[in-house]
Amino acid sequence: MHINLFRVVGGAILLLFGRRLFWLFVAILGFVAAADFAAKYLNGQTQMVQFIIASIAGLIGAVLAIFLQKLAIAIAGFLAGAYAVTLLIPALHMHPGNLAWLLSVVGGIIGAVFGVAIFDWALIILSSFTGAMLIAQSVPIAGVSENVVLLVLFVIGIAIQASFHRPAQRSAEKT
User: Fold this and answer.
1) Three-class SS state of 45
2) pLDDT digit string (tens) for 33-49?
3) Where are the domains of the chain?
4) Which of 59, 70, 127, 129 has the fewest C-beta atoms lying within 10 Å of its C-beta?
């Protein structure tokens, strides 16, 4: 099974249901982060070994998310923020050299703080952005910039998830 298929499917799930299925959001982030790590640092291993490592990381993320919700959103926020910075650096034609890791850590810290401070909206925004990134990276569309696809999918994800969020707010206000 090819990792890009998992990125597209995982990205679509995050884009549409990241807030409602936050444990899956954390699991997918764990899977993607571990898959990237394995591809970069364990390239001597077979794809199956890399897939198993990524799957175990995703499973650990899901279990943590179920039992340690606030910690899980902080971790998810950190991973999403760091991942976003990692992707934005080349997209913005920045060349930070050895400081790239520091920018990723700063992005991760911002994502973690953001995640804990405004949990529901953070999940909507972070999962929409992460889902859009996963899809935009994995599905090349001829003649369309990856950044345009990313932005359109990001807005669609926020709009869809926000529409799910509103009815829950109204019913909570009535009680």
Assistant:
1) coil
2) 888 888 877 878 888 88
3) 3-174
4) 70
